[in-house]
Amino acid sequence: MRVLKFGGSSLATSDRVRDVVRIVLDEARKEPLIVVVSAFQGITNQLIDCARLAERGEARYEQEWAAIARRHRSAIDDLVGPRRGRRTRVQADALLSELHDALHGIQLLGHCPPRALDVVASFGERLSALIVAAYLERFHPARFADARAFVITDDQFTHANVIFSRTNRASRRYFTPMLRAGRRRVIPVVTGFVGSTVDGRTTTIGRNGSDYTAAIVGAAMGASVIEIWTDVDGVLSADPRAVPAAFVLPQISYEEAMELSYFGAKVLHSAAIAPAVAKSIPLLIKNTFNPAAPGTLISKSTSDQGHPAKGISSVGDLTLLTIRGLTMVGVPGIAERLFRALAGRRVNVILISQASSEHTICFAVQTVDAAAAVQAIHEEFRFEFHNHLTAVDEKSGQMIVAVVGDGMKGRPGVAGEVFGALGRNNINISAIAQGASERNISCVIDATQQVRALNAVHQAFFETRKSLALVIIGVGNIGGTLLRQLHDQHAYLRAHGFDVKVIGLANSKRFVLSADGISLGRWRETLLASRRRMNPHALAEQLAQLELTNAALVDCTADASIVDAYPAFVSANLHVITPNKRANVLPWKRYAALMELLRARRKHFLYEANVGAGLPIMSTLRDLIASGDEVVKVEGIFSGTLSYLFNTFDGRVGFSALVKDAHRMGLTEPDPRDDLSGQDVGRKLLILARQMGSTMDIQDVRVDSLVGVEDVAMTRRLQRARSRGAVLRYVGVLEGDRARAGMREFPRDHPFAGTKGSDNIIAFTTKRYSRTPLVVQGPGAGADVTAMGVFSDILKLLHYLPK
Strand order of the sheet with strand 575-577? Predict the structure, then answer.
């Protein structure tokens, strides 16, 4: 025999009731059933609102009652039919009349005690079960079963406690005759949520108590399984509204389910598990809207699925209170006094943490209970407060993140995974608690960090692919090429365990954001259709609201205003990848402040394409320094543009005409004067110098400008070099604290004379490479190679990110 419980979302409309009955009929072919139902969706809240309106003497309760009546009468007409439903209509009208009398009585008294509130609230399930049973009876023998006949409770109204000895006997007497009736046995449709005292007064067993009713009946009748049918496919690894990557857990244990339900998992009512645990009855969570989904089985033990954690949940709207004082150290009874005082005010303590010094005890309570808790502490410790020996700190706007799993027990490193994931995302922890069972690690954080915290921890434990969200600013030559490379390499990245998606695009006029990702096949149309005006700080602000975990800004511009907004992007939890050299050549104080912010926020700053486009210049220099080598001198042809110009310049075509050709081919900076002035080479020298630990600024770099040099003068200079068997090259040199760049002559057998096209060639002279410098050579300009350098940095970041 099985018990099937259907929640309010499964009974929201007549069509959904039909779906429920189809499920029941399919399951009834297999074995005997008991069906437990909640009120129609939203009805319980409406009933309580009615009671409160009546209590305040507001006549509007009549309108609310009429709306409730119309909804149930309409459902009867729709499901059972005007003729066949005559008997059901009479029964429902009797219940609605009784409800009206109860509300009228509350209005006359001007008071709604808990007992009266229970009576009013009970009508939701009573009407729902009556209507579902009547519709089911059209296809199979069924009977409306009022749980007040067999769920016996004490008189703690609104949260009544079940008297199991009486309830179990009454349930067996009530249901056994129905379940023995042969092939056409009756299917009872039971009212969830309600019960009655020994002397017959109506009670309720807590909000969402229909799960509890199902477990009570299932335990009393020795059910083989208790099925909880709801509006999700099962218990998920996290709240899908906050964590898009959440997935259904096939199996969890009773203990895991209790921990998850206590800490915010809404699929199951925590009290529902207790009767099932006592009888070792499995619970199966199923989806009314997707019956084919296997659901989640909750049982005594589960098979190891490779994850130490099973789920991540949270509970919010908390206040963290800390009582502290030197007189607490080593004094027995302090904790007893504290929690007795809180219990006396009916304050529920959700989490407790005490330092081993005994100097402080901190605990979390619902924010609505915070004032009562503080008052209780002041009353209990009034002597200590009067003598300034004790103080209470109050921190509101808190929430708890709980990581739950049987596999966490005895497994080293689990806590490190939790705290590491939070730390990498700059989420501060206010308090920590872990029980001796090691099944739950809970930490208190600011509620504003909830989404980011849940996603960060979920990624650390469950996601096999490393995910990275990119926001690309600048979609011209370099940015557009990068987007094509990302589109072409999508399958490669997925195959290697990387999930990279572009969630933001911007040009100088507009930007577009989509947390689900932007199609790289139609990105131009998407950006063109956007009405969001580009402002880097506004973009950063909107990104901060997305609460991203692994995300990076890719700045493919040469724009100083984007660099000015880097701190805002870093504060929004983004790494930075860029070929834009302006950040690395900021005035020293601004540069140092940006580097400190990146360190403080634990964000990577990757800029391989700043020097040498796609060549590994920066990484080579870093590796030399990291290996303990000492760099004596760095010299070379750093500008792909100037390399192309001097490799091509033979005197037959004017130098200025070559510049125009290079600009047309995309080999220059957006403004070619940045190349001709030598400032581009100067910036690269400064970037290398700062990588080597220098604090110099751009004005410390001496550069020779070619801007304004006439074609005739350039031709004469070329002819003089040729007459000496030499060639012209524009070279940068970094040696000690000196950095200079300018046009020089080199003999034809010199390595710098052998470059072709837009080649860069950089020679590192170090203590290890003192006789023969280490040389890196290759194309140093053009959208393809620069975009490749940026793409390489994206791959580096993916490898840096934790699994």
Answer: 532-533, 510-513, 498-506, 466-473, 551-555, 575-577, 605-606
